[in-house]
Write a structure and sequence with these properties.
The protein is mainly α and about 250 residues long. It has one domain. The chain contains six helices and no strands. The radius of gyration is 28 Å and the shape is elongated.
């Protein structure tokens, strides 16, 4: 008997031993496997812990940014009193606000990424709930969240462009607060530069307002493009990647 015949015989024996998802030695497979619940529970807690770390990082970054911005305002107020708001104040403000704006932009970029990642973890937990219901269908009435990853999609979802309909929702989030502060900072920085070149107050105000508006639109477009560029392709069996969750969900 050749080695190929031995392998073919072994495969046939293994196929014959597997009947109805249970092997000949009594072990079950799939969700019937007694180890499945432990594995799913471990995965559920892992996703939950990852979400918690994301929240903590986002709020920590936002707190640091606002703290630095508050310190800058206090320092500039004291300097303005000492120099009668002269060119020294404007020059010093240019340096400090540039640093603040860099930190603010970095905070916003990371917040968008964290929110997008959080959507994956939420979708993953929804799929785990589906597995729980397949194990014990009678538990469905006790779940307050849907096991379907595509259910209850918020207005601002994966790849969804910003619209007036979901603008009110996105403006009340941590990411939008950081974006608003960045926009004001950019406008103040532009007005400061104009003032250093000797422009009048009215010109500086209009330039600052225009730059703030452009910066705000740029933040929204960045978040929307970030989502659209990472829209996953859903496989036939369904995927956690297809869950709709907002980049500004926090």
């Amino acid at each position: 008997m050749t080695s190929d015949q031995v392998r073919d015989g072994s495969k046939r024996m293994a196929a014959d031993e597997s009947i109805g998802g249970a092997s000949i030695d009594g072990r079950k497979t799939g969700l019937d496997d007694p180890r499945a619940l432990d594995i799913l529970t471990t995965e559920h807690w892992s996703l939950l812990s990852t979400r918690t770390l994301g929240y903590q990082e986002m709020f920590g970054r936002a707190t640091i940014f606002i703290g630095i911005l508050s310190g800058t305002i206090v320092a500039l107020a004291l300097l303005a009193q000492a120099t009668k708001f002269g060119r020294e104040t404007l020059s010093f403000a240019l340096v400090l606000m540039s640093v603040d704006l860099f930190i603010g932009v970095a905070t916003f970029v990371r917040s968008v990424a964290i929110n997008f990642e959080d959507a994956h973890w939420v979708a993953g937990m929804n799929l785990l709930r589906r597995a729980y219901l397949q194990m014990v269908p009678d538990l469905e009435r006790y779940f307050v969240t849907s096991p379907d990853p595509e259910a209850n999609q918020p207005a601002l979802a994966y790849g969804t462009p910003q619209r007036l309909a979901n603008l009110s929702n996105s403006l009340t989030t941590t990411s939008s607060v950081v974006a608003a502060l960045n926009s004001v900072l950019a406008g103040a920085l532009a007005a400061d530069v104009i003032a250093l070149f000797g422009a009048g107050v009215i010109v500086a105000v209009f330039v600052g307002f225009g730059v703030s508006l452009v910066t705000a639109v740029s933040h929204v477009r960045y978040a929307s493009r970030y989502r659209r560029s990472r829209v996953p392709s859903a496989p036939a069996s369904g995927s956690a990647m297809t869950d709709a969750a907002s980049w500004s969900s926090k």
